[in-house]
Structure to design on (207 residues):
């Protein structure tokens, strides 16, 4: 992937700053911010927030991601940079933590982003969550119960880690921009599903 075909993903558990940083990074990069849950999936997502089937929820998110990927590929093929907030590996690791049992094999030709995991000290992250003006869903609560294990799982496929505890969003973006792009592209990071734990989720089950 060349500089003109830059693809970046902002990752992290809730409260680390993904939703704020992703659009700021896209603006700084003159990139397109592609929602990985496109607007036409949002109403069904809200419906599933009231259900208890993690396999159904994972299928929805995977369908949304594949739909978004078609758009991402079109932009990258046109030489237009793309930023996303979360990508396939987060979907798979999160839903496995929720109890999803589906075995999924991802296509080998999926575009792979340079990934930045935002981290935050627990006290500050919880303070941010408390300030949010929306009720937590069942899935938000489950994610909080698995926050530490989800953060550790993300470590296995993240290119760069950025601590947002004592920095504002603009400073986080400046940190990302200061990273050498070619180093980021060639960093020693594992592709989607390469971690043994993730692989156990994405590998198609033959039994």
């Amino acid at each position: 992937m060349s500089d003109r075909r830059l693809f970046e993903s902002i990752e992290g558990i809730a409260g680390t700053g993904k939703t704020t940083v992703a659009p700021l990074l896209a603006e700084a990069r003159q990139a397109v911010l592609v929602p990985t849950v496109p607007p036409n999936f949002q109403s069904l997502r809200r419906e599933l927030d009231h259900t208890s089937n993690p396999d159904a929820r994972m299928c929805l998110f995977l369908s949304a991601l594949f739909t978004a990927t078609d758009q991402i590929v079109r932009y990258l093929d046109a030489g237009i940079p793309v930023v996303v907030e979360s990508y396939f590996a987060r979907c798979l690791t999160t839903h496995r933590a929720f109890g999803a049992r589906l075995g999924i094999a991802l296509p080998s030709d999926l575009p792979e982003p340079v990934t930045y995991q935002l981290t935050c000290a627990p006290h500050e992250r919880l303070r941010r969550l408390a300030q949010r003006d929306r009720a937590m869903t069942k899935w938000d609560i489950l994610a909080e119960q698995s926050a530490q294990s989800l953060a550790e799982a993300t470590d296995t496929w993240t290119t760069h880690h950025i601590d947002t505890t004592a920095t504002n969003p603009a400073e986080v973006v400046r940190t990302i921009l200061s990273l050498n792009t070619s180093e980021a592209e060639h960093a020693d990071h594992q592709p989607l599903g390469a971690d043994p734990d993730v692989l156990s989720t994405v590998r198609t089950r033959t039994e």
Q: What stands out?
A: The first strand starts at residue 7 and ends at 11.
